[in-house]
């Protein structure tokens, strides 16, 4: 499969998508539509291309979209990009504001959805499972899009007709969720092979996990609980034992792993994760913020502390410049081996059981089951630090939500969840305004903080605005 990704990259660029385009990619030629998507091998190549698209989409944006704007990280070094992101100084030229790779992945999924049903030499099971992955990954990409930009353009069929305008206006986020994302995930559930278990591929567990988070984003706690009920009914997932906690991120084969994104520098080339949160040959773009460090330094028995960063650094509260979480441990030194930027090998968990348990705990809290919420919360805590919380100490549902979010911050640290947690619970400004003012003060710039809720969304890139005149910029950003 790894070798196929290289083959299909060239094919996918020339046959059914222009790699450096977005919604205005060149239409598929008559030749390509006649010659591709005809055999089982084509289906396999097309499937590999979709996963290649996820790698390209998230390799450069996983940290920026999900963590870098939160209280998990602060800027490292003096680079303008990371300073702007951690001070909420985004603009239309910020690299992570570009959605080209995301829409490239959607376009590949659109092609698969259209053409897979016509491939005769696939078994029904295999055809349906490929379709399930295409529907599910398309939904996952659109879910990222609405969380990052809000209203976004929607295309659910391949762009093939040169007479058709490539330009599209933005559709409201709620419309995208209700009319594309949820229907795609529900369709995927009807097609997916129920016996598929690979954590490197989107299985039934992964589809239900995305659906859970989508419902939590909508504050639809009843349906979120229903989705997690279905996950529980699979009898497939559980928390990894304390002794095997590191394996979640190194092998991605524990019972906790649901869906992980796998990079290997030998086959996939370099990626941005190492350079952003832990490379041996350059300063990391982001350092761990002292806010989260204090939570760990005040609870030194927490096993996640030593896995996340080097606890032997003398000035730990200000000098944690590298994340250890995703790298194997050197048996001689007892410390993880941090790769060079161009030699990164990482297995990033997109969804795992602790994530689902804590989302379910939130949903239980908001549907009035406080004891159930604390049961799940304390399951996660027991593995990490063996200390339970007493529900009587938390009077309101907001208090309970906060303690669950605090646990999610430590448990899912650097896994691209924290910023989205703050946004969906309405806490982004409350948490980040004082931090950004503090950072601005230390840099000697005006303390504008984070007071404008419109700045929660990212700007649309200048590149996209130039190519599609129907797009309108998110206010208050300029073009």
Tell me about this structure.
The protein is mainly alpha-helical and 479 residues long. Among the domains are: 2-193 and 454-467, Serine Threonine Protein Phosphatase 5, Tetratricopeptide repeat; 250-349, no CATH class. It contains 22 helices and four strands. It has helices at 2-15, 30-35, 40-59, 62-66, 80-86, 100-115, 124-149, 173-191, 204-217, 221-233, 247-250, 265-268, 272-277, 290-297, 303-308, 316-319, 353-366, 370-384, 397-411, 418-424, 428-443, 462-467, and strands spanning 73-75, 257-263, 286-288, 346-352. It has a two-stranded antiparallel sheet. α7 packs antiparallel against α8 (173-191) and α18 (370-384) runs parallel beside α19.
Number of strands: 4
Radius of gyration: 22 Å
Beta fraction? under 5%
- Report, as a whole number of angstroms, the end-to-end distance: 41 Å
Structural class: mainly alpha
**Helix proportion of residues, in percent?**
40-55%
Largest sheet: 2 strands, antiparallel
Task: Give the class-level CATH name of the domain at 2-193 and 454-467.
Answer: Mainly Alpha
- Quickly count the helices: 22
What does the average pLDDT come to? 87
Corresponding CATH architecture of the domain at 2-193 and 454-467 = Alpha Horseshoe
What are the low-pLDDT stretches, counting only 5+ consecutive residues below 50?
A: 1-31
Shape: globular
Q: What is the H/E string? A: HHHHEHHHHHHHEHHEHHHEHHHHHH
